[in-house]
User: Which sequence fits this backbone?
């Protein structure tokens, strides 16, 4: 048995969660519903304009791994924070959830701080993310422990992490340490604009190395440059063993071996959409590594997503296994 | 018209909110339902043992002032943080709510950090607080601006702030700058053990300077060394113009000019009791400075308390004025 069911690699972030209306987004020049990268000056300026906030550990792949840890899965996370107060908060929350986390912190004298994401939640529950990457942009190959990757049944790569000078090399090191030992590679595209920025790198990695692709409607259509969601899924299905394409309240499509099943979403009142995709992936990967059929994994993912969007913050609060049992999945 | 309806002075804290059961409290040596002071070593040790957390600005008087700002009241806060990430969070949240906040930050090289309170919420909604005061203990007379205090209709003193080497002198400076200009003094006893530690200082200040006393059942009985709640209220009523004694779900007693009225609590499902007393005081003081009768102020306080205990965190989330209107108070 390998030490880890899943090892995730991504941007280590603390979320700064605040509420505002659409007029504020327009006035502040924030594009609704997506992730936009901002620098420290913009982070300071924007923070000075938003209302009172709550700080909750986030980061897309970190949310996924926290979900797997919550489910009792054996998992670890790789992502860089600084040796500062926000870095300590991030590390605490992940370890306290039960995930291994040993990435070296950037030292106190590093020019940048721990990354943070100013998440503005509008009354419709949609979130608009403004990300100051900080030190997490500087994850490099030396942060990847090949022994850890060799001990992973699955590695889970966060698409956002394609931004940053040494990230592609870090991903390559992780893949090359994992696959020869029988491990498999999963990736999430993260964001349509991130796909735009790195389409060729995504396409190459997906063709060559990826066994399981997570993407939502906008991301997979961006990847294959098509306005046709079904065509994009079909294109992905020709390149990857398992394709999991989410479509918000319209549910999920799972493609494997030429066949495709549709799994409806779990109806929920959306309070804060942050983390829906992350927790979907966490529950899906956990189910898969526990030996459940793909359709059950997708249903677990939908239940987990519905939990995390029912409250503020992208980390799970309710007992997911109990929810799975209530839905007849365990 | 004075610049401020209320200026609050207290311990500036960021709350670290986490959930645990009673067995954890017992095992970790935490006394349930009260505030206990801890040093940095204990803070680090305890933090390493608790589960994932959320960080939300807190501090008793700061919660009160944030509530007044939320209501549109003219208000300011005095309390010390450090120039670090948690200090920036605290300052942001208070200013973003609309309160003036200009206390000098302790410099980056100060030996202590911004204060934090590890708040452990048990399934019954009760909170057990573990406070590392950090730099907020070092509020001193030079942090009190006499011109600001002269511009306050009310000052609001947090009992917790009686801990710390220069705090009594700082309070005296605030009182002496406020009262000669027609301002009035309110105080909250904060905690029965805090009363134990500083009973003589509390008693002297209450007799000599306090116009409005906030206390809960345990605190006022500790202050007057009696097991009889009614006797304690009567004793306070002989020394202070207005006595407001809260008794959790049993409501509030307001004593003034020899008469006493009882105002029932607003029934609520308790999620997290943190901040109930703070928001009660905020709504009460706001109502008073807006010219409402004492009984209406108490009912406003009860509505505000019921809002803050219905969710995690000690800052108000719903629209309090709308709630007051729904209860026929505005």
Assistant:
């Amino acid at each position: 048995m390998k030490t880890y069911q899943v090892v995730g690699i991504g941007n280590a972030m603390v979320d700064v969660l605040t509420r505002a209306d659409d007029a504020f987004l327009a006035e502040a020049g924030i594009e609704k519903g997506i992730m936009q990268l901002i620098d420290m000056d913009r982070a300071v300026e924007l923070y000075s304009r938003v209302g009172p906030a709550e700080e909750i550990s986030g980061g897309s792949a970190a949310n996924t791994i926290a979900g797997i840890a919550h489910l009792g899965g054996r998992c670890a996370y790789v992502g860089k924070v600084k040796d500062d107060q926000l870095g300590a908060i991030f590390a605490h929350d992940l370890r306290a959830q039960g995930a291994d986390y040993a990435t070296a912190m950037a030292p106190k004298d590093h020019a940048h701080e721990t990354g943070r994401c100013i998440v503005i939640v509008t009354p419709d529950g949609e979130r608009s993310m403004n990300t100051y990457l900080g030190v997490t942009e500087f994850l490099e190959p030396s942060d990847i422990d090949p022994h850890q990757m060799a001990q992973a049944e699955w590695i889970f790569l966060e698409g956002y992490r394609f931004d940053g000078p040494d990230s592609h090399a870090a991903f390559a090191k992780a893949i090359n340490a994992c696959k020869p030992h029988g491990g498999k590679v999963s990736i999430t595209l993260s964001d349509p604009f991130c796909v735009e920025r790195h389409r060729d790198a995504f396409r190459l990695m997906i063709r060559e190395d990826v066994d399981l692709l997570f993407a939502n409607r906008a991301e997979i259509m961006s990847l294959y440059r098509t306005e046709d969601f079904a065509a994009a899924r079909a294109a992905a299905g020709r390149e990857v063993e398992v394709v999991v394409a989410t479509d918000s309240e319209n549910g999920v499509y799972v493609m494997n071996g030429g066949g495709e099943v549709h799994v409806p979403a779990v109806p929920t009142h959306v309070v804060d959409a942050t983390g829906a995709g992350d927790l979907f992936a966490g529950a899906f990967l956990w189910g898969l590594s526990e030996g459940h059929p793909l359709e059950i994994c997708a249903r677990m993912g939908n239940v987990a997503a519905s939990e995390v969007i029912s409250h503020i913050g992208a980390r799970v609060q309710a007992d997911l296994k109990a929810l799975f049992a209530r839905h007849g999945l365990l």
